[in-house]
Amino acid sequence: MAVDSVLSSPLGPPACEKDAKALQFIEEMTRNADAVQERVLNEILTRNSQTEYLKRFKLDGVSDRETFKNKIPVVTYEDLQPEIQRIANGDRSPILSAHPISEFLTSSGTSAGERKLMPTIKEELDRRQLLYSLLMPVMNLYVPGLDKGKGLYFLFIKSETKTPGGLLARPVLTSYYKSEHFKRRPHDPYNVYTSPNEAILCADSFQSMYTQMLCGLYEREQVLRLGAVFASGLVRAIRFLQLHWPQLAHDIRTGTLNPEITDPSICERMGLVMRPNPKLADFVTDECSKENWEGIITRIWPKTKYLDVIVTGAMAQYIPTLDYYSGGLPKACTMYAASECYFGLNLNPMCKPSEVSYTIMPNMGYFEFLPHDPNSSRDSTRNLVDLVDVEVGKEYELVITTYAGLYRYRVGDILRVTGFHNSAPQFHFVRRKNVLLSIDSDKTDEAELQRAVENASKLLKEFNTSVVEYTSYADTKTIPGHYVIYWELLMKDLNNSPSDEVLNKCCLAMEESLNTVYRQGRVACNSIGPLEIRVVKNGTFEELMDYAISRGASINQYKVPRCVSFAPILELLDSRVMSRHFSPSLPQWTPERRH
Fold first, then answer.
1. Ranges for the GH3 C-terminal domain (predicted)?
2. What are the tens digits of pLDDT across the range 73-127?
């Protein structure tokens, strides 16, 4: 029930007093965005004034914006790598931050094939928790009654390692789920999960997914929303149900747990949950044994009001699949965050995926924006714009300064300004800069793909064969999705052409060349399927050029696109395929970092 109108918010009537305070906080922050930004920069520079990094640029304790912008350079991860490596190796002096670095958050973006290491400090958990605490108060404005049921969220931890100096290195969500903030979170009737902590915190992805799905089936009548971090994760969960429903139904019918589930804490917890329920087992069997899985989400979880998943950027490719499985349920993108910093939230979470805009919360860090021209390969780091000065309709690359010790750091996200909430801008996430291929949290850029093709094509030399031209696309029609690489080959000796086995090995050689996030997705998370090479007829790429020119491309400036997604081009390529080849085994991957 909405609280007294005295507490009402311009965003809408809050569902309870706690929500009213959260919505009031959003209003205060966004009304005073520039003043908040000035305060945040002042706090960051004052507390870190004695760090080696700021002293190097002779900031001399000054904390005003103009001096900061004149003296501190705009940087990339590669620029900071020497400092980050020193911290990783055990140097505890105040290099980037006056507060001790508590751990590294491993980014899904990579540098030289390895996950980037983002330094963080203990208090950042409080800042992240604050942003999380704003999500449900906003959602409650749009979807009433979420306190009357539960959320079926598929949440997972990933492997963690230690740096040579003994600091943990792990993904930001693994850090959050393992924190006391998450494990001992106070009961909130608007935010109850069906998945027990024991399942979320199990490192074995099969045991974790199986247990979370089993609990979700037991509580099917309570489920009001389904979610995962990325759309790909929810699609994978439905595929998991397709593959494992007979065993799940058996467990429900008998009240006994699948013997493959051996994690002691899960077994103990599930001992309290498991009970024989033949009626539910019959229902699961009836629904899941049908050939048609259209609308399966609302058939099994009939009270579901929306899906809580990220479907912006590369994840937009999963929208048709989710629409099919859910009967077109709304898809809520609630927040915008990265390993480096949590940025903001969607104040209209039930909008269409194509209309998602995130409002930057000015208390999370200091934000600058580098104007981005999609048609230019150059960008000047001299003309950065402050948060409140961005212009509607323009695209920018996000540059951040954080409490944890990143200064004027280029995140690599391209954002388009769609409007303002009070004085805080709202952005549509356009894409990651330079990313060609992405299935899950992997990000493969053009240079990496080129290197992988070059390494794989070495296997063709003994057959006097070379790769003349190539392009790629991320195929998400398969579950899990996989990379498809189209190759046009020049075979100089038709009597000695490479065999299927050799071309299969080329697929594996490409995978071995790709970054650690890709290989972890293949080996540990099962979130990416085997890479596929499709060999096309000679002359195919000339036809591709003719098609592009017929649509207005300049013959002088035409370059073969290294990634394609336009349906007519994919149809042209697929109509010229002569043979298809898949990686015959998993690439090498271990949790340890290469040094």
1. 448-565
2. 999 999 999 999 999 999 999 999 999 999 999 887 766 667 789 999 999 999 9
**Tens digits of per-residue pLDDT, 209-245?**
999 999 999 999 999 999 998 888 898 899 899 999 9
Between residues 435 and 177, which one has the greater pLDDT?
A: 177
Preceding omega of 73 cis (within 30 degrees of 0): no
pLDDT digits over 103-115, tens only? 999 887 766 667 7
List CB contacts of 44: < 8 A, sequence separation 6 or more: 365, 366, 401, 402, 403
Residue 407 half-sphere exposure toward CB, CA atoms < 13 A:
30
Token digits for 101? 């670095």
Instruction: Classify residue 479 by its DSSP letter.
Output: S
d(CA 510, CA 335): 34
Instruction: Please give the Cα distance from 306 to 329 (Å, whole number).
Output: 5
Alpha helices in 89-190 (DSSP H): 124-142, 172-177, 180-183
| Residue pair 407/97 in contact by the 8 Å Cβ criterion | no
Provide the Cα torsion 239, 244, 248, 249; round to 10°: 100
Number of H helices, E strands in the chain: 20, 22
d(CA 226, CA 150): 9
Contact 23, 14 (CB under 8 A): yes
- Judged by DSSP in three states, 28 sits in helix
| Neighbouring C-alpha atoms within 13 Å toward the C-beta of 573 | 27
DSSP conformational letter for 374: T
Are 152 and 297 contacting, i.e. CB atoms less than 8 angstroms apart? no
Cβ-contact 524, 159 below 8 angstroms: yes
Contact 397, 368 (CB under 8 A): no
- H/E stretch holding 30 reads helix 17-31
Question: How distant, in Å, are the alpha carbons of 91, 159, 575 from that of 166?
Answer: 11, 16, 54
- Find where tokens 């002088």 sit: 556
- Tell me the DSSP string of 500-541: HHHHHHHHHHHHHHS-HHHHHHHHTS--SPPPEEEEE-TTHH
φ/ψ of residue 313, rounded to 5: 60, -135
User: By the 8 A CB rule, do 519 and 546 touch?
Assistant: no
At 379, is the pLDDT very low, low, confident or very high (cuts 50, 70, 90)? low
pLDDT tens-digit readout, 298-314: 999 999 999 999 988 77
How does DSSP classify residue 9? B
In DSSP notation, 435-469 reads EEE-SSS--EEHHHHHHHHHHHHGGGGGGTEEEEE
Alpha-carbon span 294 to 227, nearest angstrom: 18
| Contact in structure between 360 and 427 (CB atoms under 8 Å) | yes
* 275 Cβ neighbours under 8 A, 6+ residues apart: 255
- List Cβ neighbours of 573 (8 Å cut-off, separation of 6 or more): 471, 486, 534, 536, 540, 544, 564
What angle (nearest 5°) sits at the alpha carbon of residue 422, between those of residues 420 and 426?
A: 25
Residue 355 burial (C-beta neighbours within 10 Å; 0-12, 13-18, 19+): exposed
| DSSP one-letter code for 316 | G
Tokens of 314: 């590369």
Q: Is the pTM of this model over 0.90?
A: no
